[in-house]
Amino acid sequence: MAFELPALPYPADALEASKMSAQTFSFHHGKHHAAYVTNLNNLIKDTDLADKSLEEIVTATANDPAKAGIFNNAAQVWNHSFFWNCMKPGGGGQPTGALAEKINKDFGGFDKFVEQFKAAATTQFGSGWAWLVLDNGTLKVTKTANAANPIVDGATPLLTLDVWEHAYYLDFQNARPAYIENFLSQLVNWDFVAENLASA
């Protein structure tokens, strides 16, 4: 069965008040994400990967240079589908409940988490992603280049931020730190992150 471009979990203009424009979504979701889906379907058609789940394709092709094209497109489909859910209208602020307690325990406070997350997102050279993951029972901040995804290393993604330039250039130009700050203060869907932790 061919993969399909998932719908955004909110209208394309729902995050305008939080500086994420409908124009950004028209390109980022409607063109970039859509192209990864199309490319993936073309690459796996009539292969032994055609009936696999997205996660299975990502893990099966991660360390195979001959399948780098499949991995890059499959991982980017996964990463983007996950990323859209990491944001919501009226998001940002601080988490509560079990997630807040776990962040305090593993990072020594929410501010320490923010500091690490901002550093990872800012220092990822070129294209990539910043992540909050659960790794062997502990919350960690990590970063990956290009399409790479922590599931390949056995970690469970809880939150991600896309730091590819196309994710923010229309709204923030070259000011990646402002984009990162805006994501944390106005966009993060902590309910989604808490659900991911609870089901990990």
TrEMBL record:
Pfam families: Sod_Fe_C, Sod_Fe_N
Protein name as catalogued: Superoxide dismutase
Family note: Belongs to the iron/manganese superoxide dismutase family.
Classification via InterPro entries: Mn/Fe_SOD, Mn/Fe_SOD_BS, Mn/Fe_SOD_C, Mn/Fe_SOD_N, Mn/Fe_SOD_N_sf, SOD_C_sf
Enzyme class: oxidoreductase
GO terms for cellular component: cytoplasm
Organism field: Planktothrix serta PCC 8927
A GO term for molecular function: superoxide dismutase activity
Catalysed reaction, written as an equation: 2 superoxide + 2 H(+) = H2O2 + O2
Role summary: Destroys radicals which are normally produced within the cells and which are toxic to biological systems.
Span of domain Manganese/iron superoxide dismutase N-terminal: 3-88
PROSITE patterns (UniProt xref): SOD_MN
Ligand binding (Mn(2+)): H28, H80, D162, H166
UniProt subunit comment: Homodimer.
PANTHER family: SUPEROXIDE DISMUTASE (PTHR42769), SUPEROXIDE DISMUTASE [FE] 2, CHLOROPLASTIC (PTHR42769:SF3)
SUPFAM superfamilies: Fe,Mn superoxide dismutase (SOD), C-terminal domain, Fe,Mn superoxide dismutase (SOD), N-terminal domain
Keywords, sorted A to Z: Iron, Metal-binding, Oxidoreductase
EC numbers on record: 1.15.1.1
Highest rank taxon of the organism: Bacteria
Keyword Chaperone part of the UniProt annotation: no
Domain Manganese/iron superoxide dismutase C-terminal: 95-195
Entry keyword annotation includes Iron: yes
